[in-house]
Design a protein that fits this description.
With about 50 residues, this protein is an all-beta fold. The chain contains no helices and three strands.
Length: about 50
């Protein structure tokens, strides 16, 4: 599953993770801390939507 920031378009792909931010590959979106913010624009996790 891929989650996109509704503000800037940054994409988080569960398969690849976000190693630069300390999130390892295959980390499910629900397992990412609630205080996660978009690394590009800084909005919260609630501003992302999922797509397959």
């Amino acid at each position: 599953m891929v989650y996109s920031c509704t503000v800037c378009g940054f994409e988080y792909d569960e398969e690849t993770g976000y190693p630069e931010g300390g999130i390892m590959p295959n980390t499910k979106w629900e397992d990412i801390p609630e205080d996660f913010t978009c690394p590009i624009c800084g909005v919260g996790k609630e501003n992302f939507w999922g797509q397959e």
